[in-house]
Every structure is written in C-alpha cells, then in structure tokens.
Amino acid sequence: MAGRATGDHFSRKLLTAMTGKTATTQESVFAARKITKVYHMGEVDVHALRGVDLDLYRGEFVVLLGPSGSGKSTLLNILGGLDSPSSGTVFYGDQQLTDFDDAALTRYRRYHVGFVFQFYNLIPSLTARENVGLITEIASNPMTPSEALAMVDLADRADHFPAQLSGGEQQRVAIARAVAKRPEVLLCDEPTGALDVQTGVLVLEVIQKINRELGTTTAVITHNAVIAEMADRVIHLSGGKITGVETNTTKREAAELTW
Amino acid sequence: MNSLNRKLFRDLWQMKGQAVAIALVMSCGIATFVLSRSMLHSLQLTQDTYYQRYNFADVFATLKRAPESLTERLAEIPGVGQVQTRIVVNVNLSVPGFDEPASGKLISLPETHRPRLNQLYFRQGRWLAPGRDDEVLASEAFSLANDLHVGDTISAVINGRQKKLRIVGIALSPEYIYEIKPGDLLPDNEHFGVFWMNHEALSIAYDLDGAFNDLSISLLHGASAPEVIQRVDDLIEPYGGLGSYDREDQLSNKFLDNEIEQNRNMGMFAPTIFLAVAAFLLNVVMTRTINTQREQIAALKAFGYSNLEVGGHYLKSVLLIVAGALLVGIPMGIWFGGVVTEMYAKLFHFPEFTFRIYPSVLLGASGVAMTAGVLGTIGSIARAVRLPPAEAMRPESPTGYGPTLLERLGLGRLVPPVALMVLRQLERHPLKTMLSTIAIALAVSVLVLGNYMQDSVNYMMAAQFHWVQRYDMSVATTEAVADRAIYELGSMPGVLLCEPNRYVSVRLRAGSRHRRVGILGIRSDSDLFGLVNMDGKPVPLPPGGLLVSQKLAEILDVGVGDWVQLEVLQGKKPIRQAMIAGTLQDFAGLSVYMEIDALRQLMREGPVVTGAHLLVDPKFQTALYRELKETPLISAVTVKQHAIDSFDKTVAENLRVMKSINLLFACIIAIGVVYNSARISLSERSRELATLRVVGFTRGEISAILLGELAVITLAAIPVGLVCGRFFAWWMTIAFDQELFRFPLVISQQTYAFAAAVVLVASTASGLVVRRRLDELDLVAVLKSRE
After folding, report:
1. Is A134 at the interface with chain B, CB within 8 A?
2. B240: left (phi over 0), alpha (psi -120 to 50) or beta
3. Of the residues A57, A209, B216, B782, which has the maximum number of CB atoms within 10 A of its CB?
C-alpha cells in the first residue's frame, strides 16, 4: 500500500515536471491526470470531460473559463470531492482523491475545501451568522462566524436571514461560510453569475482579498472573460478539454473590472 | 443548540400546520393504542387479582338436592382443591318505593366462617349476624340501581312466603362482576340482584337441612378441568345435577372475557389505520421537503456534512413530529381510558377498577409510532442521503407531463385548459394521487365504521324486540308443569295472548365437540316468538329435529341432516339422538329451537310446559307483573320493556360516546389529509400559479386549479371510502363473531350520507384555509425565487 502510494507520488512528480510550466518552482495542490467524466442520460452518454490534465499550485488564483457545457463545473466538482471522474486520477497534495471512499471524501470536504455556488445555497431558515456557524461547528480550526462575516464586510448584517439580504450580500455570506473553516482551497462556481456588475465586483473583491490575505488556493469558474483578468492563470475549457492555459503577467484588481 | 438543529426547528415551524395535522392523526393512533392495550391489561390484571384474592372457583354445578356428605367424595376427585357447597335460589323481590317487583338470587353463606370459594368483597355495613334469618348482604350493582342502603328493607318471596329482609351490608363477588339474569344479554340491575344470606335460614326455608343445591370447586394447579367435570357429573348425577361447567361457561366471566377480547381486537385494528395514514402523510411531506431542500442538502454535503448527519437531520424532524404526536396521543389515550372506565363501571362491578397506565404500553406506543414514522419516510430520507452532491446542485429537471388518458382518447378539446392542468397533475403522480385518495377514503370509512356499530346494534335490538320477541312478558315456571296451569295465566286480567313453551337444558354432543345449551320448544305457528334470520327473513320451524344457531352448528361442526347426541341435564337425564333440521342466523347466544310437540315426544312426556310468552294490555302491565310475581308457580318474569330501558341506559349511551370519539378521529384524518395535500400542491405549484396570476388569471381561476385537484381526489375518495367502510364493517362482523353476540352487517343510508358529508365539509374547510394562503401569494417574490 505504502509502496504504491510512493510510486504514484513519484510518477505524479515526474508528470508535473514534464507538463507543468512552473512546476519546478511551485508546490502543486491539485494534480489531475487524464480525467474523463461520462454521464449516462437515458440512452445517450454525455462526455463532460474528455481527458483533462490539470495542476493547481499553492496560493494561486486560477480562473477556469469556458462556455456553458464546456465541463468546467464538472471539473470543479471533481476537484472539490463532490463528484468522481469516470477515469483518471486526481491528487490532492500526496493523497489520491480518486481512491477516496465516500467517508474520506466527506472528511476531505469538511476540513480542506470551501465552496461558493452560483446560487449561494444558503440555508434560508438560518441567519447569516448561523449559516456560517453551520460550518465552523464541524471544522477543526475555524474562525468565529463573526470574524468570517467581518472579512466579507457583513458584521452588521450577521443576524439577518437570507431573505432579508440582497443577492450580493447573500453571496458574501456564502463566501464567509466557505472561508470560515480556513480551507486550503476555495472553489467558486460562477460566483457572480446571478449578480449585477457592481455587486459582482464587490464579491470578486472579497474573493481576491481572501486569496491574498489567507493565501487560499482559489479556483473560480466563469464564462465571463473579464474575470479572467484578475487571475494568476487562466485555463480555457471547451468541449470537455483544456484548450489553453495562459499566465497573466499583470493581474488586474477586481475593483477595476467591468462588463 | 447547533446550527443544524436550529435549522430543524425553524423548518418545522415553517411547516407547523402540516406537522400539527400529521401529529394529530398519529396521536389518534397512539391514543387508541394506549387505550386498548392499557384497558386490556387493566381488565386482565383486575380480573386476575380479583379472582385470585377472592378465590373465584374453577368449576360450577347446580343440582337439585345433595347431602353434605357428598362434599368429601367431591374433594377426593384428583385435581380438586377446594369444594364449596351452598344453597342458591331464585326469588321474587319487591323493593319499597318501586312499583315493579324485581327478581333475585339468594346465595347461602356459611355462618361460622367465610366461604372458601367465591369470597365477597365487603363494601359497606357488617357481616351477617349468626342465627339471623332476616338479614342479607346485597350486591352493590342492585343497591346502586335501586338506591338501597345499609339498613333498608326489601321483601322476598321465599319458598312461597313473603319475608322482610334487612340489608346489613353491601358486597361484591367475583362471580357477579357482570351481574346479569341468566338468559339476558344486558344487565338490568334495577330488576335483578344478588343477595347473600345465612345458610341455615335458607336451608330451613327450602327444606335443605344438611343438603345443598349448588357447588363450586377450585382446581389444583395443572388439573384438567374436563376430567374433573366428568367425575363431578358422575357424582352429582343421582342428585339431580344439571351438569357442571368451567369458567368458560360461567356467565359473568364469559362476558368479561368477551370484553377483554374486544379490546385486544381494537388494539390491533384502530391504531393500524391511523398510523398507516400518518405514515403516508409523513411520506408526502418529507418527500416534498427533501425535494425543495435539494440544494441545501447539496451545500451541507459540499461543506463536509456526512450522509449520516444529513439523514439524521431529516430523521430527527420526523421523530420530533412523532414525539409531538406522543405528547398529545398518550394523554388523549389516558383520557379516553377514563371515559371508557366510566362506561365499564355501568356494566362490570369490580371492588375497584383503575385504568392503569403501563410503562410497557407507553413504550410500545412510542415504538409503533416511531416505526410508522420511520417506515413512512425512510425512502425519501434514503434518497436525500444517496443524492450525489454534484447532482443535488442542479435543480431538478422539469417534471415530464404528458397528455392524459382523456386527451389520448381524443377528448382533450372538450375539456377546458384548467381542467386539463388538474388532470395532468393527477395523472403525473399516480401513486400519490392513489394514496391521497386512499387516505381520505380511510377517513370516510372510519366514519362509516363508527356509525355502523350503532346501526348494527339498533338493527339487532329492533330485530330482537320486534321480530323475535313479539311478546311483552315471558314467564318461567319453577318446574315442568301440566299445560293447564299455564292456560290459567291466559285468563288473568290484561293478558291478551298466552303461548306456552317448554325449555330443556341439554348438552349437545357431536363427536368430541359439545356445548351446554337450552332447547326452547314452541309452537310452529307461534305469534309471539319469531324465528328470523339476521336479514329479517322468517325461518320456518321444522316439524321434527332441531333448529340451531348457525354459530352453534359451526362450533359443533355439524350441518343440516347431521345427527347430534342430546344429553338432557335434568330429570332422569335421558340421552337422545336428534337431527339438525335447520340453522338460524341469529344475533346472540347459542340457541336451539324445536317444535314443542316434537320436543315432548323426544322427552317422552305428556303436554308439560316450563313457561309462556304473553301479550299484555299495557294498561294492566304493572298489575299483572305484580300478580305474576306473587304466583308461587312462576319462578321468573321478564318484561321486555325493562330490557329495552336497560339497553338505553347502558349500551346506547356507551355507543353515543364511542360515536363522538369516532367522529373526532375521522375529522382529524380528513382534515389532516386534505390540508396536507393542499399545502403540498401549493408549495409545488406556487410558481406556476403565480405565473398564471401575472399573465392575467384571476384568483378564482388559480384556486380552481389548486383546489380542483383536491376536489377530484375527495370526490373519488368518497365512494371508495364507503365501500372500504362496508368492508371494514364486514371485517368487524367476522372479528366479533362470538358466542355471545354477532353483529349483523347493517349500514343505514344515513350513515353513508353522514360519512360523505363530514368528509366533504372537512375537505372544503381545509381547502378554504389553503386558498387564503393562495390569496396572500406574493407574486413577485415567488417568481424571483429560484425553484
């Protein structure tokens, strides 16, 4: 068992060395190899991912850019341990996610990953503070809900229910909820998809701030090319494949973005 | 409290109306469970302790006259524990202040010591003073019914002589828990009572010095009752023994056992219905809740809540509803227990009867309620647990509607679009539609069932009092007499018609099966005694052979044309063979009829009679009754009106109570089901309905879409419920098909109409409550929110 793990670890390092542009200098958080995902929808098979190789490095801000149906949500779900690939391997650090059983995946999500969803997915019957509390109660080294809400500038709205908050505020609560456990990675699925420009920018600013101040590895999915300008790296997805990876030489501040 | 539990309580609060409705339905199941099971145990415990503490005998026998010396021989029978001999006589009584005379049983008590068997529970007063022949202890039932107290005096005709008897004490006996005159079905405590008197006084009055005419025996542990009975019969036969019998045939015990059995049946039947409906409602509500919370479930899982935690969260909300139901249901059951205990107090006379609450019953109730709740929801909860988080993130794909059967038949154009929406919705969820229909149908059937008991008993009483007993009075003679004596009765003032009869106590034997019964010999052209089936059809009395209750034929496993052995239990105790010439579907007891001359021929006797049925001019009834009671030849007089009055006072009143409880239950089910269905529909379709409002539909039109569905379900459920109700009633007639009573399957039109009306009203009311919520629908908010 240990021997195999070491072997896998070695081949992963090797692969990283061969494919990654900056692999030699940066520590990789995720390493995905040849991952495919096929959904069986009745009699048709939908190929969501067709062999994706991907590395995410510690502390970086990555934008996964692609039109809807390109497979970017599937990829994010697999990295976040919400879904598993049909084939291929995913490493998180030196642990192989694709070997995890359901309980191990649950622990992985519980202690390591923060999610932000397009539609916030707040629990409507809980206040902002309680929504964050839902996570801090089960995490190992969390902030207090108040600290997390202060980070997203919502300390004064802590006792409001989701229905009493605007869309942007709800998304910020969702971000506070995602970062309160001090996750290693923050995965955001179209975080501004349901928001107008101004509010969207506000939300992006918060995400950028988290990435900078906490050093959380951040992946944001979007079909909005403007958002790509604030990333360290932009990964283009189309038809279930990575069609290109660019590294931004100059990152733009979220506050400067407009669309 | 952690956040997840906080969510739990707030979610429950959000659906409080539904949660309360479900908890109420469930609490009815819990209440009936607690009531029936506790009552069953309470009755059993009270019966057992009473029997044990007061040495209730195991074997009983009546004989004509036997010397006390026989006692020793009886005691030597293997298996016999104690033998108690005594004198028991039937007497006519008159109570001061009451016009109508009554009848009673005088039972002798040893003067020097307490009786070894059938000991008395002393309620009031003092024990009989030795040597006194004018003191009695009166049964509590009779004293209460006639407002008699210690110190009051009654008079009895003892062996032809009127004697004043002073009540010095009030007592109860395990032998007379159900204090009923032999041959009656309902107690008439006002006109029949049991008294205890010094042995010597009775033995002198009846010329039984050094002798006895009644026998009680207790058995040693492990003794075989049939063997002892056989040996006792052999010993008492020369002394005019009428055949001994065990507790199973002891009248009071038989009625009490019958009641215990009914509680056992009810304890199964009623909770099953309520808990099944509650489980169904929980299923619908949890399925809907989990569907609306798909994305919340996804988020919880994405943040690392385990399947167990997510499943546990929903299970907890089910268990909270169950807990609420227990909190209401258990006190409700205990309260019903009090009501039923009061009802029992009129029928059964225990020294003390307390409705005891057993922890095991409460645990059992909690167990079955939780099981019902979990069984009802485990499927949807498992679906929530299994839901892959990535999939839960995506909203559910729109439900696939298709053309309905109506449209496939090409009739779609004839139906307005609103009706089509209603029909498609119903056809889209066939299982849910079906289960909702069944649940409402159950409410209808509970109502049918509740009133069926009353219909059936009313029918039974009407049939008994109008078709069978067409007489006003029936009299019995002390012994078989020449028929001349009876014809003299016909000339008494007020007697319009007098028909003699001949009654013979026998044991009918067919192979190894046997029963003690009485054969009533009547004229085949009798005007005063009708032989009718349950359906009211007259049954002709065959010229020869026996006409027996269908139930007796079943017990003996014989049919028409079969021969049975007929062991006469009196006189010279001849043994004869007789043919079953017909069967009768009657309501109560095990009866045997024979043409009077054929019976006399079988008995090889002349024209003797043992009683008569009389038709009486109402004006003379009281006077005649008094005169009859003072006629030495007559041992018992039964007035039909007394039986009717007694029925009205006890059973009818009890039935009214049961009926209101049933009504309450049925309304709870109906409201629970309809309200829940309406709320679920509203939640599932508020977006669609809001859209329709926005594009210009009126409130009335969208209400029609929402409530139309419920209307269709309710209207479909009513006929189903009426049929189910009839089926349950039939099932009950089978479950309650006993030797003492058999309920005819009679359900009146009013019962059906009432059941349908109550459910319609309950449905309309819950529909209107939900409609009000529809009026308050915030169009903008609904449309903005993401489904």
Report:
1. yes
2. left
3. B216
